[in-house]
From TrEMBL:
Described purpose of this protein according to its UniProt entry: Is involved in NO detoxification in an aerobic process, termed nitric oxide dioxygenase (NOD) reaction that utilizes O(2) and NAD(P)H to convert NO to nitrate, which protects the bacterium from various noxious nitrogen compounds. Therefore, plays a central role in the inducible response to nitrosative stress.
Protein name per Swiss-Prot or TrEMBL: nitric oxide dioxygenase
Pfam families listed in its UniProt record: Globin, NAD_binding_1
Keyword Iron-sulfur: no
Domain FAD-binding FR-type: 149-258
Lineage start: Bacteria, Pseudomonadati, Pseudomonadota, Betaproteobacteria, Burkholderiales
GO molecular function annotations of the record: FAD binding; heme binding; metal ion binding; nitric oxide dioxygenase NAD(P)H activity; oxygen binding; oxygen carrier activity
Keywords tagged on the record: Detoxification, Dioxygenase, Heme, Iron, Metal-binding, NAD, Oxidoreductase, Oxygen transport, Transport
A GO BP annotation: response to toxic substance
EC assignment: 1.14.12.17
């Protein structure tokens, strides 16, 4: 627990961090990589380039300061960060390095306002947060039976084009030891790029655990006006074929839809956010095909709609599955599913008992914010709502 002496300084930091947090994190990452260039192998270079990594840390620091007494709000965020860290191989030794450069960056940006008392308070607060993360990460490493940074060679046994921009890769472990996982979890995949940089990316597993393989579905990220092309996604699309061997972590992630129950369940997705939902749907089709499921997906059009074959197979197997697709650009009836024009609207979905059905969603942040607000307005209890997010989007409800 934060000491009484430090608390006023942390409370006073909230408006300061709101104003200067991004400047602090920019200074932080520049100094960190100059002193420890090997950490480029852990951090997402694409997110560094487009600024989202800096924004993510700024959001995390601000959210921590603003909610330091609200452990109920911070706990799920810490859990999400811990799973991400373990998939990347973060160790206890990384935390003092980060703490040193973070405090130095606060001093540099705030200048005389960064009094010794303020820095001491933040050193205490950071130490408490770091220890909480370290303890949870050690627990997770132990539960998974793995050591920090362990990766396992996976051989590609199938490559399938799921849509214009999404390709799936089916993987089997070279050592024959297929790890268990829950639908909704992800693995980190490591690639060595032509410039020598190693990068790790997380991809949700997109098939049921019942098969003798792991499957990931990767969207080719095309460069935009303000975003670079996806380094790892493009490399995978351009280089990985059947027979390729790629290193990957064990599965992690705490977004795990309830696939083993018998109550109604609602799965909402947009874009490549469909991948964890397909894993959940395929599992339910296997263990409880009579279960009532509402599966709704939003895509630009049919050519941008991945895993249509999985959905068609589930529709044929599950008499109580209601599959609804929203195409922003056009309207097409196909595969036994209901297809509607425009963006997803909850009022166009079948009705369900809002007190009994759990609702899970994955997709771009604006999509999930819209659906979340509509669901709450329709009377769905907040504790029945679950979403999968990464990066600064994880903290939008705290900041």
């Amino acid at each position: 627990m934060l000491s009484a002496e430090s608390r006023p300084y942390i409370d006073a930091s909230v408006p300061v961090l709101r104003e200067h947090g991004l400047a602090i994190t920019k200074v932080f990452y520049k100094a960190l990589f100059e002193a420890h260039p090997q950490l480029h192998n852990i951090f997402n270079a694409g997110n560094q380039a487009n600024g989202s990594q800096q924004q993510s840390l700024a959001s995390a620091v601000f959210a921590y300061a603003a909610n330091i007494d609200n452990q109920a709000a911070l706990a799920p965020v810490i859990s999400r960060i811990v799973h991400k860290h373990v998939s990347l191989g973060v160790t206890a030794e990384h935390y003092p390095i980060v703490g040193h450069h973070l405090l130095a960056s606060i001093k540099e940006v705030l200048g005389d306002a960064a009094t010794p008392e303020l820095i001491a308070a933040w050193a205490e607060a950071y130490g408490l947060l770091a220890q909480a993360l370290i303890d949870e990460e050690n627990r997770l490493y132990k539960a998974a039976g793995t050591q920090p940074g362990d990766l396992f060679d996976m051989r590609v046994v199938a490559v399938d084009q799921q849509s214009d921009q999404v390709r799936s890769f089916s993987l089997v472990p070279v050592d024959g030891q297929l790890p268990s996982f829950k639908p909704g979890q992800y693995i980190s995949v490591a690639v060595h790029l032509p410039d020598g940089l190693r990068q790790l990316r997380q991809y949700s597993l997109s098939d049921t655990p019942d098969h003798q393989h792991l499957r990931i579905s990767v969207k080719r990220e095309i460069a935009g006006k303000e975003t670079p092309a996806g380094m790892v996604s493009n490399w995978l699309h351009d280089n990985v074929v059947v027979g390729s061997v790629i290193p990957a972590s064990k599965p992690f992630g705490d977004f795990t839809p309830d696939t083993e129950g018998d109550g109604p369940i609602v799965l909402l997705s947009a874009g490549v956010g469909i991948t964890p939902m397909i894993s959940a749907l395929n599992r339910i089709a296997k263990v409880s095909p009579g279960r009532r499921v509402i599966f709704a997906h939003a895509a630009r059009n049919a050519s941008h709609h991945p895993h249509r074959a999985d959905i068609a197979k589930a529709v044929a197997l599950m008499p109580n599955l209601h599959s609804v697709t929203f195409y922003e650009d056009d309207k097409v009836d196909q595969d036994g599913a209901t297809c509607l024009a425009g963006r997803m609207q909850l009022k166009k979905l079948p009705q369900w008992d809002v007190d009994k059905a759990k609702v899970y969603m994955c997709g771009p942040l604006p999509f999930m914010q819209t659906q979340w607000a509509d669901l709450v307005e329709q009377g769905v209890p907040a504790h029945q709502l679950h979403r999968e997010v990464f990066g600064p989007d994880m903290l939008d409800h705290l900041i």
